[in-house]
Amino acid sequence: MGKRKSDDPKDVIRKGKSKTQLKRNIGYFDGVSFIIGTIVGAGIFVSPTGVLKHSLLNVGVALMIWTASGLVSLMGSLCYAELGTALPFSGGEYSHIKRGLGSLPAFVFIWMSTVTKPASNAARALLFAEYAIQPFYGICPAPEVVKKCLALAVLWSLGILNGRSVKMAAWVQTVFTLLKMMALSVIAVGGIVLLVGGRRENLARFEDAFSSEIPSASQVAEAFFQGLYAYGGWWSLNYMAEEMKNPSRNIPLTVMTAVPTVMVFYLLVNISYLTVLTPKEIVSSVAVAVTWADRVIPSVAWIIPLSVAVSIFGALNSSVFTLGRLSYAGSQSGHLPVLMSMLNVHSCTPAPAMIFSTTIASIFIIPSDLIMLTNYFGFSAWLMTGLTCASLIVLRYREPHLYRPYKVFLPVPFVMVAMSFFLVLAPIVWSPNLQYVYAFLFMLGSLIVYLPFIHFKLHFSFLDKITCHLQLLLEVSPADGLAEGKCE
Fold it and tell me: Which helix (H) or strand (E) holds 67?
């Protein structure tokens, strides 16, 4: 506004060719960084104890469960790779469920995700703030107000970064993924050196790996659940499929690189912990990696708390990026306000969607007790994974001629569907809690919104005026339907 309009025919043609569209800026290495960065958070550094605890301190069983959890995650990611290459759209599971099972299941997914995913981001931001601030307070606890202020600052910094530049967000993700993998390499290599050294006390736990009590089937299942939780995030690449360069090639290749890499590092790091610490010491430790560093590299043990903060920051950046794409896809399908499907005219990023998801995460940070309530929504993640794999099976039979550059072995999605519904029901059956009822009622509450606003298309005209004003304020416009965009 305020600038003289040009009547030059060349300018008119240039404007006609300029398209507001998500650009394919994410390459193979960026994709690997996003997957690894999402999976590897603070857990492997701080508390990789759930698997060992529920394995009754049986080293052999624990290592087998870590391996099996990685293989199941790889199976799931290969199912998602088929969907991502056949339907390379933003939104991940949401887009696939909508195509395979219809509008209502997809709306239920985005309804639940609007709560659970921002709450997860809020929890990560608070944990980062705790690790970043605590060294300045020594043995005294850091003030809650300071932690929350830093958490909000970090969350909005990443939200703004991801809303302004995909390339810069991908660069940050790559750098922080490399830093966290360097920290894991220090732990893994340190363990290998001690193990190869052949000291008797280091080898004893592995020579009689299965000598401890064998856990029951329910205990193995609980340990397995803990292991799968540690691999959470393998599904993140499909949220950015629309922005992947050459998705037909890069999505399967990225998945087959990232998930096995995490498997190998998780196994080596756990072996390193078991080389230095006894199973009882691991289970009782508040921060296993810190205890390990105090034993092996005491002079530079400060590296580990720093590495935890770096790891959380990288995981948060990846999660902020993917959550914005989910809101963008939901808006494109009419399940969220139309403003969130608009792109910034300068950077071609879904800035309104980023602002929306970051605002909800901020709400969870301020009264942080809300985050505890969302712990009981965890079963919904595996429910949606099961529905996504079911969508793959439905599409195989309903749309047999759909172009699929990559096809997973058909029994794999059937196994994933069965596994997913087992993981949904298991915690509810083993430890029933009234909060699960509340979570289920919240899921049903999606119908109250879906029926009038989505099914019957109830619309308030005053919202159009608000959308118009916000569109001008944020400098955004609807995305064009063509494949190639011209935003830089």
Answer: helix 59-86
